[in-house]
Protein backbone atom coordinates (compact mmCIF):
# COMPACT_ATOMS: atom_id res chain seq x y z
CA UNK A 1 0.00 0.00 0.00
CA UNK A 2 2.63 2.54 1.04
CA UNK A 3 5.07 1.61 -1.72
CA UNK A 4 2.71 3.04 -4.32
CA UNK A 5 1.39 6.27 -2.89
CA UNK A 6 4.16 8.73 -3.70
CA UNK A 7 7.30 8.80 -5.80
CA UNK A 8 9.53 10.67 -3.36
CA UNK A 9 9.60 12.74 -0.19
CA UNK A 10 9.29 16.48 -0.68
CA UNK A 11 12.37 18.56 0.02
CA UNK A 12 10.48 21.51 1.50
CA UNK A 13 6.96 22.59 2.39
CA UNK A 14 6.65 26.31 2.46
CA UNK A 15 9.05 29.17 2.73
CA UNK A 16 6.79 32.16 3.02
CA UNK A 17 3.25 32.60 4.20
CA UNK A 18 2.38 35.06 1.42
CA UNK A 19 3.98 33.01 -1.33
CA UNK A 20 2.13 31.93 -4.51
CA UNK A 21 0.67 28.47 -5.01
CA UNK A 22 2.89 27.00 -2.28
CA UNK A 23 0.13 24.70 -1.11
CA UNK A 24 0.46 22.47 -4.13
CA UNK A 25 4.17 22.72 -4.81
CA UNK A 26 5.25 20.14 -2.32
CA UNK A 27 2.41 17.75 -3.21
CA UNK A 28 3.35 17.91 -6.87
CA UNK A 29 6.95 17.29 -5.95
CA UNK A 30 5.97 14.01 -4.22
CA UNK A 31 4.46 12.57 -7.40
CA UNK A 32 1.17 11.69 -5.70
CA UNK A 33 -0.68 8.80 -7.37
CA UNK A 34 -4.32 9.35 -6.39
CA UNK A 35 -6.68 11.59 -8.40
CA UNK A 36 -8.37 12.43 -5.09
CA UNK A 37 -5.21 12.98 -3.05
CA UNK A 38 -5.26 16.60 -1.94
CA UNK A 39 -2.52 17.25 0.60
CA UNK A 40 -2.99 20.99 0.70
CA UNK A 41 -3.02 21.10 4.48
CA UNK A 42 0.15 21.91 6.43
CA UNK A 43 2.41 19.14 5.11
CA UNK A 44 3.47 17.54 8.40
CA UNK A 45 -0.04 16.16 8.95
CA UNK A 46 0.17 13.76 6.05
CA UNK A 47 3.54 12.33 7.03
CA UNK A 48 2.49 11.94 10.67
CA UNK A 49 -0.63 9.98 9.64
CA UNK A 50 1.45 7.94 7.22
CA UNK A 51 3.94 7.08 9.99
CA UNK A 52 1.08 6.00 12.30
CA UNK A 53 -0.45 3.69 9.70
CA UNK A 54 2.93 2.19 8.86
CA UNK A 55 3.11 0.56 12.31
CA UNK A 56 -0.49 -0.68 11.91
CA UNK A 57 -0.51 -3.14 9.01
CA UNK A 58 -3.77 -4.73 10.21
CA UNK A 59 -5.52 -1.33 10.22
CA UNK A 60 -4.06 -0.40 6.84
CA UNK A 61 -5.30 -3.66 5.35
CA UNK A 62 -8.74 -3.25 6.93
CA UNK A 63 -9.14 0.30 5.60
CA UNK A 64 -8.26 -0.77 2.05
CA UNK A 65 -7.98 2.37 -0.16
CA UNK A 66 -9.27 4.53 2.68
CA UNK A 67 -5.85 4.20 4.36
CA UNK A 68 -4.19 6.22 1.62
CA UNK A 69 -7.05 8.71 1.48
CA UNK A 70 -6.87 9.17 5.26
CA UNK A 71 -3.15 9.85 4.82
CA UNK A 72 -3.19 12.13 1.79
CA UNK A 73 -6.50 13.86 2.16
CA UNK A 74 -8.81 13.34 5.15
CA UNK A 75 -6.32 14.22 7.92
CA UNK A 76 -5.93 17.63 6.27
CA UNK A 77 -9.65 18.44 6.09
CA UNK A 78 -9.76 21.22 8.73
CA UNK A 79 -7.00 23.08 6.84
CA UNK A 80 -8.89 22.79 3.53
CA UNK A 81 -12.28 24.09 4.57
CA UNK A 82 -12.03 27.69 3.32
CA UNK A 83 -14.68 29.30 1.13
CA UNK A 84 -11.97 30.61 -1.21
CA UNK A 85 -11.18 27.13 -2.53
CA UNK A 86 -12.15 27.16 -6.21
CA UNK A 87 -11.58 30.93 -6.49
CA UNK A 88 -8.59 33.15 -7.09
CA UNK A 89 -8.54 33.59 -3.34
CA UNK A 90 -7.53 36.42 -1.13
CA UNK A 91 -3.80 35.82 -0.94
CA UNK A 92 -1.35 37.24 -3.44
CA UNK A 93 -1.67 34.27 -5.76
CA UNK A 94 -1.89 34.23 -9.51
CA UNK A 95 -3.82 30.96 -9.79
CA UNK A 96 -7.24 29.76 -8.76
CA UNK A 97 -7.18 27.35 -5.81
CA UNK A 98 -8.42 23.85 -6.73
CA UNK A 99 -11.89 23.35 -5.26
CA UNK A 100 -10.80 20.71 -2.75
CA UNK A 101 -13.44 21.83 -0.28
CA UNK A 102 -16.29 20.86 -2.61
CA UNK A 103 -14.42 17.94 -4.14
CA UNK A 104 -14.54 16.11 -0.79
CA UNK A 105 -17.52 17.91 0.80
CA UNK A 106 -15.10 18.97 3.51
CA UNK A 107 -17.47 21.47 5.12
CA UNK A 108 -19.82 18.59 5.88
CA UNK A 109 -17.05 16.53 7.51
CA UNK A 110 -15.82 19.55 9.50
CA UNK A 111 -19.37 20.55 10.50
CA UNK A 112 -18.55 24.11 9.47
CA UNK A 113 -19.43 25.93 6.24
CA UNK A 114 -17.81 29.35 6.10
CA UNK A 115 -19.71 30.28 2.92
CA UNK A 116 -23.14 29.57 4.43
CA UNK A 117 -22.08 30.57 7.96
CA UNK A 118 -23.33 27.18 9.20
CA UNK A 119 -21.82 25.41 12.20
CA UNK A 120 -18.83 27.05 13.84
CA UNK A 121 -15.11 27.27 13.30
CA UNK A 122 -12.94 25.32 15.73
CA UNK A 123 -9.44 26.68 16.39
CA UNK A 124 -6.36 24.53 15.78
CA UNK A 125 -4.55 25.25 19.05
CA UNK A 126 -4.81 22.59 21.78
CA UNK A 127 -7.29 24.47 23.96
CA UNK A 128 -9.82 24.48 21.10
CA UNK A 129 -8.59 21.50 19.06
CA UNK A 130 -9.85 19.18 21.81
CA UNK A 131 -13.41 20.09 20.80
CA UNK A 132 -12.67 19.12 17.19
CA UNK A 133 -11.02 15.86 18.22
CA UNK A 134 -13.89 14.78 20.49
CA UNK A 135 -16.67 16.03 18.21
CA UNK A 136 -15.39 14.55 14.97
CA UNK A 137 -14.47 11.25 16.67
CA UNK A 138 -18.06 11.01 17.94
CA UNK A 139 -19.26 11.76 14.39
CA UNK A 140 -17.05 8.91 13.13
CA UNK A 141 -18.51 6.47 15.68
CA UNK A 142 -22.07 7.53 14.77
CA UNK A 143 -21.34 7.07 11.07
CA UNK A 144 -20.17 3.50 11.75
CA UNK A 145 -23.34 2.76 13.67
CA UNK A 146 -25.36 4.07 10.73
CA UNK A 147 -23.43 1.89 8.29
CA UNK A 148 -21.65 4.80 6.58
CA UNK A 149 -18.13 3.39 6.78
CA UNK A 150 -16.38 5.75 4.40
CA UNK A 151 -18.02 8.76 6.03
CA UNK A 152 -16.68 7.43 9.32
CA UNK A 153 -13.09 7.45 8.06
CA UNK A 154 -13.50 11.01 6.76
CA UNK A 155 -14.74 12.24 10.15
CA UNK A 156 -11.89 10.27 11.73
CA UNK A 157 -9.46 12.15 9.46
CA UNK A 158 -10.76 15.49 10.74
CA UNK A 159 -10.43 14.23 14.34
CA UNK A 160 -6.85 13.15 13.65
CA UNK A 161 -6.03 16.61 12.28
CA UNK A 162 -6.95 18.27 15.57
CA UNK A 163 -4.99 15.66 17.51
CA UNK A 164 -1.90 16.30 15.38
CA UNK A 165 -2.28 20.08 15.70
CA UNK A 166 -2.27 19.74 19.50
CA UNK A 167 1.38 18.65 19.44
CA UNK A 168 2.60 21.10 16.80
CA UNK A 169 5.22 23.35 18.46
CA UNK A 170 3.79 26.77 17.45
CA UNK A 171 0.21 25.58 18.11
CA UNK A 172 1.08 24.20 21.55
CA UNK A 173 3.18 27.27 22.33
CA UNK A 174 0.56 29.69 20.92
CA UNK A 175 3.09 31.32 18.62
CA UNK A 176 1.63 33.60 15.98
CA UNK A 177 3.38 36.14 13.80
CA UNK A 178 6.55 35.65 11.76
CA UNK A 179 7.87 32.69 13.79
CA UNK A 180 4.75 30.52 13.42
CA UNK A 181 5.61 29.15 10.00
CA UNK A 182 9.35 28.54 10.50
CA UNK A 183 8.53 26.86 13.83
CA UNK A 184 6.05 24.49 12.20
CA UNK A 185 7.22 23.84 8.65
CA UNK A 186 9.64 20.91 8.44
CA UNK A 187 12.36 21.18 5.82
CA UNK A 188 12.83 17.40 5.83
CA UNK A 189 10.11 14.87 6.69
CA UNK A 190 12.21 11.73 6.29
CA UNK A 191 12.76 11.59 10.07
CA UNK A 192 9.03 11.19 10.75
CA UNK A 193 8.59 7.52 11.56
CA UNK A 194 7.80 5.39 14.63
CA UNK A 195 9.10 1.97 13.54
CA UNK A 196 8.91 -0.51 16.40
CA UNK A 197 6.24 1.41 18.29
CA UNK A 198 3.46 -0.84 19.60
CA UNK A 199 0.24 1.23 19.79
CA UNK A 200 -2.18 0.86 22.69
CA UNK A 201 -5.77 2.13 22.41
CA UNK A 202 -5.96 5.76 23.48
CA UNK A 203 -7.91 6.56 26.61
CA UNK A 204 -9.01 10.00 27.73
CA UNK A 205 -8.70 12.48 24.86
CA UNK A 206 -8.14 15.50 27.13
CA UNK A 207 -5.18 13.76 28.79
CA UNK A 208 -3.69 12.86 25.42
CA UNK A 209 -4.03 16.41 24.14
CA UNK A 210 -2.58 17.86 27.37
CA UNK A 211 0.46 15.57 27.12
CA UNK A 212 1.07 16.43 23.47
CA UNK A 213 0.63 20.14 24.16
CA UNK A 214 3.02 20.02 27.14
CA UNK A 215 5.72 18.33 25.06
CA UNK A 216 5.08 20.69 22.12
CA UNK A 217 5.39 23.76 24.37
CA UNK A 218 8.76 22.54 25.68
CA UNK A 219 10.12 21.96 22.17
CA UNK A 220 8.67 25.27 21.06
CA UNK A 221 10.76 27.07 23.67
CA UNK A 222 13.94 25.59 22.21
CA UNK A 223 12.76 26.25 18.65
CA UNK A 224 12.00 29.92 19.37
CA UNK A 225 15.40 30.42 21.02
CA UNK A 226 17.09 29.00 17.92
CA UNK A 227 14.98 31.08 15.54
CA UNK A 228 15.70 34.25 17.51
CA UNK A 229 19.40 33.41 17.32
CA UNK A 230 19.10 33.09 13.53
CA UNK A 231 19.66 29.33 13.65
CA UNK A 232 16.63 28.15 11.63
CA UNK A 233 18.63 25.22 10.27
CA UNK A 234 18.88 23.69 13.74
CA UNK A 235 15.18 23.43 14.63
CA UNK A 236 14.44 20.22 12.71
CA UNK A 237 15.22 17.67 15.49
CA UNK A 238 12.83 19.43 17.87
CA UNK A 239 10.08 19.47 15.24
CA UNK A 240 10.60 15.80 14.37
CA UNK A 241 10.42 14.85 18.06
CA UNK A 242 7.00 16.54 18.23
CA UNK A 243 5.84 14.95 14.98
CA UNK A 244 6.74 11.49 16.23
CA UNK A 245 4.93 12.07 19.54
CA UNK A 246 1.90 13.00 17.46
CA UNK A 247 2.34 9.91 15.25
CA UNK A 248 2.23 7.68 18.35
CA UNK A 249 -0.94 9.40 19.55
CA UNK A 250 -2.52 8.94 16.12
CA UNK A 251 -1.54 5.26 16.09
CA UNK A 252 -3.16 4.87 19.53
CA UNK A 253 -6.35 6.49 18.25
CA UNK A 254 -6.40 4.31 15.15
CA UNK A 255 -5.94 1.07 17.07
CA UNK A 256 -8.78 2.10 19.40
CA UNK A 257 -11.07 2.75 16.42
CA UNK A 258 -9.99 -0.50 14.76
CA UNK A 259 -10.61 -2.65 17.84
CA UNK A 260 -14.02 -1.08 18.37
CA UNK A 261 -15.26 -1.29 14.80
CA UNK A 262 -13.26 -3.72 12.63
CA UNK A 263 -15.83 -6.47 13.15
CA UNK A 264 -18.77 -4.28 12.06
CA UNK A 265 -17.28 -2.53 9.05
CA UNK A 266 -15.66 -3.58 5.78
CA UNK A 267 -14.23 -1.54 2.92
CA UNK A 268 -14.05 -4.15 0.19
CA UNK A 269 -15.14 -3.81 -3.46
CA UNK A 270 -18.84 -3.41 -4.32
CA UNK A 271 -21.04 -4.06 -7.36
CA UNK A 272 -22.95 -1.13 -8.83
CA UNK A 273 -26.72 -1.84 -8.62
CA UNK A 274 -28.57 -2.52 -11.88
CA UNK A 275 -31.83 -0.92 -13.01
CA UNK A 276 -31.37 2.32 -11.05
CA UNK A 277 -30.07 5.81 -11.77
CA UNK A 278 -26.51 5.98 -10.43
CA UNK A 279 -26.02 9.75 -10.58
CA UNK A 280 -27.04 12.04 -7.76
CA UNK A 281 -28.34 15.36 -9.15
CA UNK A 282 -27.48 14.29 -12.71
CA UNK A 283 -29.86 16.95 -14.06
CA UNK A 284 -27.97 19.63 -12.08
CA UNK A 285 -31.33 20.87 -10.75
CA UNK A 286 -30.14 21.35 -7.18
CA UNK A 287 -27.65 24.18 -6.67
CA UNK A 288 -24.88 23.62 -4.14
CA UNK A 289 -23.72 26.01 -1.42
CA UNK A 290 -23.15 28.57 -4.20
CA UNK A 291 -25.45 28.63 -7.25
CA UNK A 292 -22.62 28.28 -9.80
CA UNK A 293 -21.88 24.72 -8.76
CA UNK A 294 -24.51 21.93 -8.80
CA UNK A 295 -24.96 20.18 -5.46
CA UNK A 296 -22.73 17.11 -5.26
CA UNK A 297 -20.61 18.20 -8.22
CA UNK A 298 -17.33 20.09 -8.51
CA UNK A 299 -15.56 22.04 -11.24
CA UNK A 300 -12.07 21.24 -12.49
CA UNK A 301 -9.74 23.65 -14.32
CA UNK A 302 -6.64 22.19 -15.98
CA UNK A 303 -5.09 25.66 -16.12
CA UNK A 304 -5.93 27.34 -12.84
CA UNK A 305 -4.04 30.48 -13.86
CA UNK A 306 -6.45 31.21 -16.77
CA UNK A 307 -8.55 34.20 -15.67
CA UNK A 308 -10.90 34.11 -18.70
CA UNK A 309 -12.30 30.58 -18.66
CA UNK A 310 -15.66 30.02 -16.99
CA UNK A 311 -17.60 26.87 -16.11
CA UNK A 312 -20.77 27.18 -14.09
CA UNK A 313 -24.30 25.94 -13.48
CA UNK A 314 -27.09 28.10 -14.94
CA UNK A 315 -30.87 27.99 -15.03
CA UNK A 316 -31.99 28.45 -18.65
CA UNK A 317 -35.80 28.80 -18.86
CA UNK A 318 -36.26 26.50 -15.90
CA UNK A 319 -33.79 23.82 -17.08
CA UNK A 320 -30.45 23.55 -15.29
CA UNK A 321 -27.29 23.39 -17.42
CA UNK A 322 -23.56 23.45 -16.91
CA UNK A 323 -22.03 26.00 -19.28
CA UNK A 324 -18.30 26.27 -20.12
CA UNK A 325 -17.09 29.40 -21.95
CA UNK A 326 -13.82 30.72 -23.41
CA UNK A 327 -12.15 27.37 -22.79
CA UNK A 328 -8.57 26.78 -23.88
CA UNK A 329 -7.19 24.04 -21.62
CA UNK A 330 -9.54 21.37 -20.36
CA UNK A 331 -12.32 22.09 -17.85
CA UNK A 332 -14.73 19.55 -16.39
CA UNK A 333 -17.65 19.14 -14.02
CA UNK A 334 -17.56 15.87 -12.05
CA UNK A 335 -19.30 14.38 -8.99
CA UNK A 336 -17.64 14.95 -5.61
CA UNK A 337 -15.64 11.92 -4.44
CA UNK A 338 -18.19 10.95 -1.76
CA UNK A 339 -20.80 10.58 -4.58
CA UNK A 340 -18.85 8.59 -7.17
CA UNK A 341 -20.10 5.14 -8.17
CA UNK A 342 -18.62 2.02 -6.55
CA UNK A 343 -18.36 -0.79 -9.07
CA UNK A 344 -16.51 -3.92 -10.15
CA UNK A 345 -14.35 -4.88 -13.15
CA UNK A 346 -16.41 -6.18 -16.09
CA UNK A 347 -19.55 -4.19 -15.28
CA UNK A 348 -20.90 -2.42 -18.41
CA UNK A 349 -22.07 1.18 -18.05
CA UNK A 350 -23.93 3.73 -20.17
CA UNK A 351 -23.54 7.48 -19.57
CA UNK A 352 -26.00 9.63 -21.52
CA UNK A 353 -26.30 13.42 -21.65
CA UNK A 354 -27.28 16.33 -23.87
CA UNK A 355 -24.44 18.54 -25.11
CA UNK A 356 -24.00 21.63 -27.28
CA UNK A 357 -20.52 22.35 -28.56
CA UNK A 358 -19.87 25.61 -30.35
CA UNK A 359 -16.50 24.69 -31.95
CA UNK A 360 -13.68 22.81 -30.22
CA UNK A 361 -14.28 19.63 -28.23
CA UNK A 362 -16.86 18.87 -25.56
CA UNK A 363 -18.61 15.76 -24.34
CA UNK A 364 -18.88 13.09 -21.66
CA UNK A 365 -16.11 11.24 -19.86
CA UNK A 366 -15.66 8.34 -17.45
CA UNK A 367 -12.62 7.74 -15.25
CA UNK A 368 -12.07 4.37 -13.56
CA UNK A 369 -9.90 4.22 -10.43
CA UNK A 370 -8.99 1.83 -7.65
CA UNK A 371 -10.37 2.27 -4.13
CA UNK A 372 -7.74 4.92 -3.32
CA UNK A 373 -8.68 7.00 -6.43
CA UNK A 374 -5.57 5.93 -8.39
CA UNK A 375 -6.62 5.74 -12.08
CA UNK A 376 -6.54 2.24 -13.57
CA UNK A 377 -6.79 3.43 -17.20
CA UNK A 378 -6.96 6.69 -19.16
CA UNK A 379 -10.39 8.36 -19.05
CA UNK A 380 -12.89 7.26 -21.74
CA UNK A 381 -14.40 10.16 -23.72
CA UNK A 382 -17.23 10.73 -26.20
CA UNK A 383 -17.43 14.11 -27.93
CA UNK A 384 -20.24 15.71 -29.96
CA UNK A 385 -20.51 16.51 -33.67
CA UNK A 386 -23.11 18.80 -35.28
CA UNK A 387 -25.24 21.81 -34.44
CA UNK A 388 -27.53 22.40 -31.47
CA UNK A 389 -28.34 19.98 -28.65
CA UNK A 390 -26.95 16.49 -29.32
CA UNK A 391 -27.56 13.37 -27.27
CA UNK A 392 -24.20 11.83 -26.41
CA UNK A 393 -23.88 8.18 -25.37
CA UNK A 394 -20.72 6.80 -23.76
CA UNK A 395 -20.69 3.00 -23.36
CA UNK A 396 -17.82 1.52 -21.35
CA UNK A 397 -16.89 -1.65 -19.48
CA UNK A 398 -15.03 -1.25 -16.18
CA UNK A 399 -11.44 -2.46 -16.65
CA UNK A 400 -9.38 -4.69 -14.36
CA UNK A 401 -8.64 -3.16 -10.98
CA UNK A 402 -11.69 -0.84 -11.03
CA UNK A 403 -13.47 -0.05 -7.78
CA UNK A 404 -14.64 3.50 -8.53
CA UNK A 405 -16.34 5.03 -11.58
CA UNK A 406 -16.26 8.82 -11.85
CA UNK A 407 -18.32 10.27 -14.71
CA UNK A 408 -18.27 13.86 -15.91
CA UNK A 409 -18.65 16.45 -18.64
CA UNK A 410 -15.67 18.21 -20.15
CA UNK A 411 -14.65 20.84 -22.72
CA UNK A 412 -11.35 21.60 -24.41
CA UNK A 413 -10.46 24.41 -26.84
CA UNK A 414 -13.99 25.85 -27.02
CA UNK A 415 -13.73 29.59 -27.85
CA UNK A 416 -17.51 30.11 -27.53
CA UNK A 417 -19.66 27.98 -25.23
CA UNK A 418 -20.19 24.28 -24.46
CA UNK A 419 -23.43 23.37 -22.67
CA UNK A 420 -24.42 20.20 -20.82
CA UNK A 421 -27.72 18.97 -19.33
CA UNK A 422 -29.74 15.93 -18.25
CA UNK A 423 -27.02 13.38 -17.44
CA UNK A 424 -27.89 9.79 -16.63
CA UNK A 425 -25.70 6.81 -15.72
CA UNK A 426 -26.87 3.20 -15.53
CA UNK A 427 -25.52 -0.33 -15.66
CA UNK A 428 -26.24 -1.61 -19.19
ZN1 LIG B 1 -4.59 22.69 11.48
Which CATH class of the largest domain is shown?
A: Mainly Alpha
Bound molecules: zinc ion
* Rg from alpha-carbon coordinates: 22 Å
Largest sheet, strands/sense/barrel: 6 strands, antiparallel
- CATH fold node name of the largest domain: P1 Nuclease
The helix-and-strand class reads alpha+beta
**Low-confidence sequence ranges:** 16-21
| Pattern of helices and strands | HHHHHHEEHHHHHHEEEEEEEEEEE
End-to-end Cα distance: 33 Å
What is the correct CATH architecture of the largest domain? Orthogonal Bundle
CATH homology-level superfamily of the largest domain: P1 Nuclease
Q: What is the number of strand segments?
A: 13
How many domains? 2
Beta fraction of the residues?
15-25%
Distinct helical segment count: 12
> What percent of residues adopt helix (DSSP H or I)?
25-40%
Please state the overall shape, judged from the principal axes of the Cα atoms. Answer: globular
Mean pLDDT reading: 92
Amino acid sequence: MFSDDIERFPTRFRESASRGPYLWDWGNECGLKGAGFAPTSMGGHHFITRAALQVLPEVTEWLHGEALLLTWCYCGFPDMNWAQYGTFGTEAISARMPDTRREWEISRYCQYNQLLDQGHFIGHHPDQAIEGLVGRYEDACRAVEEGRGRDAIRFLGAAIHYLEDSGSPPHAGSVSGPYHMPAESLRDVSGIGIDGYVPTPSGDFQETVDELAQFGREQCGDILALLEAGRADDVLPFQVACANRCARAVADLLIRFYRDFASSLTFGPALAPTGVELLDNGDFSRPGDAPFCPDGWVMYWENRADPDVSIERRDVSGVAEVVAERVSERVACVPTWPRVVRCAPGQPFRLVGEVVCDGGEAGLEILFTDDATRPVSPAAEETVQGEGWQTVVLDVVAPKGTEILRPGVFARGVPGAARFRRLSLTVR
